[in-house]
Amino acid sequence: MQERLNRLYEQYGYRKFKMSRFEDYDLYAQNRDFLRQDRIITFTDADGALKALKPDITLSIMKSNGGDSEKVYYNENVCREVGGAFREILQVGVESVGQIDPYAEAEVIALAARSLEQLSPKYVLALSDVSFVGSLLDQMGLSAPVRGKVLGLVARKNVPGLCVLAERGELTGEQADGLRELVELYAPLKEGIGRVGRLAKSNAAWEALRQLSLTAGLLESFGLEERVRLDFSLVNSMDYYNGVIFQGFLPGLHTPVLSGGRYDNLPRKMGKQVGAIGFALSMGLLEERADGGRFDADVLLTYGPDAELAGLAAFAEALRASGRSVRCERAGGSAQLRCRTELRYRSGMTPEEVGL
């Protein structure tokens, strides 16, 4: 799967980014507001420098960037706390750095969709724009505490909670109605943009919609207009992202396997006058999903003590040449195996004879 994804990214001119397992701890200490976790495994190097097992790849890419345009992809392990314990998780991702115009933005979103397509034709890519949501809240003139409550309710699609705020006088009825419409919107990208336009009452909100419309038109040219859904409940990490944000979902999984968006604030904090957009695909989640239906081999080929071993080897190789995985085991063994098909080998067997 990684090889297929790598080929996909290389078709678009992205080069592979490779880094050490370790990074200077200072990089994470200085950018904690951009990390998604508080705890990091650290150690002292032989020269006395404080190092960390990397919890993030994007920060390292931005650190190495010289302020120039750059398109990279990566396959790297990150060390993160999951369920109270640290785990090493494989991530595959893409980052585009430089002058991020509507094409560059749409290209990364298209790569996210194509990545999901490699995993399942029934994927869904949900997309939002935190600058549009932020502009709507700005035009409402909400206090910081109420704004925080509203964002939490929007993220959970909690319409009754918005009604409670209106009953308490923290929102006007008109504001609660507009936010309800925002929360309940889930539609193909172009259709959704058309429906939400009436909520925009400021230049900033209109500009955010205009940019989103340009992106939608380009995604249509990529042939993806039917696979991207507008969902403004994606408002997480508004301090990290500053524009479009998206998440990818696969059948049978209730959490996103892919997350990404526009994050111009990070390079600017590092003193680099460039924009940036990217995404990460959590291969760890996919491995957990695959474990439930994983087989040890397509064919379990058992043989007795008197089997003709040369014929067994030739038969197994013929099956492998047809694209099947084959595990050979002496009959009566205690191994607990899950295989699609089990065959008992006998001399002279052919793949055609057993329907394989």
Automatic annotation (TrEMBL):
Annotated Class II Histidinyl-tRNA synthetase (HisRS)-like catalytic core domain ranges read 2-283
Q: Name one GO molecular function term.
A: transferase activity
InterPro entries per the UniProt record, alphabetical: aa-tRNA-synth_II/BPL/LPL, HisRS-like_core
State the source organism's domain of life: Bacteria
Question: What does the record list as coiled-coil region(s)?
Answer: none
Any one Pfam family match given in the protein's UniProt record, by short name: tRNA-synt_His
Kindly give the PANTHER family that the UniProt entry links to this protein. HISTIDINE--TRNA LIGASE, HISTIDYL-TRNA SYNTHETASE
Protein name (record): Class II Histidinyl-tRNA synthetase (HisRS)-like catalytic core domain-containing protein
Organism of provenance: Flavonifractor plautii ATCC 29863
- Taxonomic placement: Bacteria, Bacillati, Bacillota, Clostridia, Eubacteriales
